Amino acid sequence: MSRYRALFLVVFGGMLLSGASGAHAGERARPEAGKKIKVFLLGGQSNMEGRADGARLSPVDTQRLDVAQSRVQLAYNNEAMQPLNVVVPVPGIARSYKRDLIFGPELFFGIALAEAWPDEKILLIKRTQGGTSLYGCWNPEWTEEKAALMNEEKKPRLYGELIAYAKDVLSGYAEDQYELCGMLWVQGESDASNEIAAAAYGDNLQNLIRSIRHDMGSDALPFLMFQVGSGQVVEGMRRVSAEVPGVTLLPQDKDPASTDFYPIMEENNHYNNDGMRKLGERFAAEFLEEYTQH
User: In Å, what is the CA distance from 99 to each residue of 54, 77, 107, 264, 281?
Assistant: First the structure.
């Protein structure tokens, strides 16, 4: 049996066993004496969810992941907490992208943090869904009217789900056992396609950040986002990152010669393995540079 076939069975089997048990099932890491587990929230649409091919990690990246797994946990889309790994996509994504396994920026974000913090344990809590907007699904002030504008009436209220999921996962720890360190955000393409949602993006983004900080009890929670979308969505991102303390925007450039270029899959406009690796590592580098003591 190949390594990746075995990995598929381990990941898929874990999901089947944990699906009915909620976030408390699975392997729960415990902090070392005198330390706190470092917790990050992750949210967004398809480029946060990830379409990179988890069965095509290089031998070097696989080795890095193997080392990180002993100290980095991932709680993903209402599943049980597990060691950081590639994940099994939902059937529609598996068919469309011909993937048995996928990953988003969390994979190399977690690996990079584990390498930078060799004595720390890390927990990533991620809620995502492709094709969702900040105006509708992700809006902390969700209304049926707003959701209808984006054709999202039947989609989940993702902001509330992320908060509930995070609190459920963290309920297994005492408050002095973990430290909420930041949130990563990759979303904007859906709002950019609607004139009303695009115009409101900056204000909605500021409300999202304010709400996350309030609802998670962390008034200065660092918020790092990646530049996606276009037009007024990107303008809103730039304005909020300039005006709101503790907000960082990772820029993107379409020029392949730029250091801010992220390779994509030409057939579907999502980031390929190299692009997703770069994004995860860039998130980690920006967090460590901006929000940790040197």
Answer: 8, 18, 16, 16, 23
CB within 8 Å of 230: residues ≥ 6 apart: 192
Query: Residue 154 corresponds to which amino acid?
Result: K
Distance CA 99, CA 132 (A): 21
Q: For residue 211, what are the domain limits?
A: 3-291
One-letter amino acid for residue 136 of the chain: G
Report residue 200 as tokens.
């409101």
Per-residue model confidence as pLDDT tens digits over 240-259: 999 999 999 999 999 999 99
- Rounded (10°) angle between helices 106-116 and 59-68: 60
Q: How many Å is the maximal CA-CA distance in the chain?
A: 54
CATH code of the domain in which 82 resides:
3.40.50.1110
Number of domains in the chain: 1
Q: What's the chain's length in residues?
A: 294
From CA 95, how far away is CA 210, in angstroms rounded?
38
* pLDDT tens per residue across span 133-185: 999 999 999 999 999 999 999 999 999 999 999 999 999 999 999 999 999 99
Read off φ and ψ for residue 263, nearest 5 degrees.
-60, 140
3-state helix, strand, coil in the chain (%, to 5): 45, 15, 40
Beta bridge partners of 250: 226
Cα R_g (the chain), whole angstroms? 18
The DSSP annotation for 153-219 comes to TTS--HHHHHHHHHHHHHTTS-GGGEEEEEEEEE--HHHHTSHHHHHHHHHHHHHHHHHHHHHTT-T
Amino acid identity, residue 213? Answer: R
The conformational region for residue 153 under phi > 0 = left, psi -120 to 50 = alpha, else beta, is: alpha
| CA neighbor of 250 nearest in space, from 261, 230, 32 | 261
